[in-house]
Design goal:
Belongs to the tRNA nucleotidyltransferase/poly(A) polymerase family. One of its GO terms (biological process) is RNA repair. GO terms for molecular function: ATP binding; metal ion binding; nucleotidyltransferase activity; RNA binding. It comes from Catalinimonas alkaloidigena. The protein has four domains: about 5-150, Beta Polymerase, domain 2 (2-Layer Sandwich); about 155-240, Hydrophobic Seed Protein (Orthogonal Bundle), CATH 1.10.110; about 260-410, no CATH class; about 420-465, no CATH class. It contains 25 helices and 15 strands. The chain has helices spanning about 5-10, 15-25, 35-40, 55-65, 115-120, 145-150, 160-165, 170-180, 190-195, 205-215, 220-230, 235-240, 240-245, 260-275, 275-285, 290-295, 305-320, 330-340, 340-345, 355-365, 365-375, 385-405, 420-425, 430-445, 455-465; strands at about 30, 45-50, 70-75, 80-85, 90-95, 95-100, 110, 130, 140, 155, 185, 250, 255, 295, 300-305. A seven-stranded mixed sheet has the order 3-4-5-2-1-8-9. A hairpin with a 2-residue loop joins β12 and β13. The longest helix is centred in the last third of the chain and has 25 residues, at about 385-405.
Length: about 475
């Protein structure tokens, strides 16, 4: 039997919990993710404890004996309590057994033994426990060969997977999430049960599904998780628009790339350079409108004209349906979907500085993320072709940096504002003010004037003169 007494004593949390359990006279164990990650040599700051008795009473006893004031959060309806101490988040629950009704993933809970508690766990690798009891302190309790599954890199349910997933269908998302995070396989019987029970996912709230999906997106190689979702029949229930990208159509011997697998490759490419969840969502959605815009032309072959514009309109609808945040994150993804073709188009030698200025201004604070997405979007089975496109893209990035350095257009704000226009010509807020602002902006982006008050204000006065607008008040240069 494996024993981790020495490891437990190195961390002050466990002796404190063991002492609180001894004072209460309850069997207590550390269970689940912390034990799994200990064996995988992964850091983990969240520690779950199970006791054969009241988890709330154990947590209260611990909070009373810890040095200083340690606030305790009690959730009576669930029989759990949680406290933070130093860098650790500790959660306590009494051992329990569960039964389920078909219409809900919320269990009927009864008091139980450690064995009952381990049986209700989702996967063998999460059903591991270590004793904190005096006679067996540090002993590993592994009734379902979770250690073996860790060595085999296998996700498997402790009991019949059909029952496990039917009872709590969110566990299907968790199975794929753990496989994707840990780069584990899913046991064949467990995977078959995913396919059999896929429709049960419909009783799970969208918020819980997205919580797991985001963790899959943030895993080291997210395409693995999405391929599992696809083949298990879960992706069509979560994100059917992504599945519509799958497949290759051929006409007159001309085929297009499989945009589903292309999208997953772009997602993986982004994951190699960024942990930004919303940049990864942009990778998932950048070509989402290709199925709706796909056309075949005998001369041009397959085209997807306007997919960036339609995709931009689709993003808010998808975010709303999937219960993703309708805030600046959605707008960031929307912006990247709208602009993702623009940098590639700048590869041509005859592209003007004004086109580059417009891209910098339109992308604004999302420019760096946009460039990461566009670089990731260069995929091909031909490595030489990828290398050639990346070399061209390097030239684009260099030109963008040169223009940015010269014109400082990031977070673009015209030096001559709408307020200046209204004061100069005595105008109220109106369409005329908006038109003058637009002409100033165009002059700056075309390189006719610099974005300074000294250049912009005389240009404004000329525009006013052309429109027959008398100057009501000549403004001084605020920088003079």
């Amino acid at each position: 039997m494996m024993n981790f007494a020495a490891t437990l004593r190195e961390n002050p949390v466990f002796p404190h919990v063991a002492e609180a359990a001894r004072r209460l006279g309850v069997e207590t164990y550390v269970v689940g993710g912390w034990v799994r990650d200990l064996l995988l040599k992964r850091p983990c700051k969240d520690i779950d404890f199970v006791c054969v008795g009241s988890g709330i009473a154990l947590a209260q006893t611990l909070a009373d004996q810890l040095p200083g004031h340690v606030p305790l959060n009690v959730f009576k309806n669930f029989g759990t309590a949680m406290l933070r101490w130093d860098e650790w988040e500790l959660e306590f629950v009494g051992a329990r057994k569960e039964s389920y009704r078909s219409e809900s993933r919320k269990p009927i809970v009864e008091d139980g033994t450690l064995e009952d508690d381990q049986q209700r766990r989702d996967f063998t690798i999460n059903a591991l426990a270590i004793s904190l009891n005096e006679a067996t302190f540090g002993d590993l309790i592994d009734p379902f060969d979770g250690v073996g599954d860790l060595k085999r890199k296998m996700i498997r349910t402790p009991l019949d997977p059909d029952i496990t997933f039917s009872d709590d269908p969110l566990r299907m998302m968790r199975a794929i999430r753990f496989a994707s995070q840990l780069n584990f396989d899913i046991h064949p019987d467990t995977f078959d049960a995913l396919r059999t029970n896929a429709a049960r996912l419909d009783i799970v709230s969208q918020e819980r599904i997205i919580g797991e999906l985001n963790k899959i997106i943030l895993s080291p190689t997210p395409s693995y998780g999405f391929k599992l979702l696809y083949h298990a029949g879960l992706l069509e229930r979560i994100f059917p628009e992504l599945i519509e990208l799958a497949g290759v159509e051929t006409v007159d011997g001309k085929g297009h790339k499989d945009n589903f697998y292309h999208t997953l490759q772009v997602l993986d490419n982004v994951a190699e350079v960024s942990d930004d969840l919303w940049l990864r969502w942009a990778a998932l959605m950048h070509d989402i409108a290709k199925p709706a815009t796909k056309r075949f032309d005998k001369r041009a072959g397959w085209t997807f004209h306007g997919h960036e514009d339609l995709g931009t309109r689709m993003v808010p609808k998808l975010f709303r349906r999937m219960k993703l945040p309708m805030n600046e994150h959605m707008k960031f993804v929307q912006k990247l979907v709208r602009l993702h073709l623009r940098p590639i188009a700048l590869v041509k030698d005859e592209v003007t500085d004004s086109a580059i200025r417009r891209l910098i201004v339109d992308a604004d604070e999302a420019l760096d993320a946009l460039m990461q997405l566009c670089r990731a979007d260069i995929t091909s089975k031909n490595p030489q072709r990828v290398r050639r496109h990346l070399q061209n893209f390097n030239k684009v990035e260099k030109r963008i940096l040169e223009v940015e350095e010269t014109d400082r257009l990031r977070n673009f704000q015209p030096a001559v504002t709408g307020e200046h226009i209204m004061q100069t010509f005595g105008l109220p807020p109106s369409r005329q003010v908006g038109e003058l602002k637009s002409e100033l902006r165009e002059a700056i982006l075309e390189g006719h004037i610099k974005n300074t008050f000294a250049d912009g204000y005389p240009f404004l006065l000329k525009l006013g003169e052309q429109r027959g607008l008398p100057v009501q008040k000549q403004l001084p240069d605020p920088q003079a």
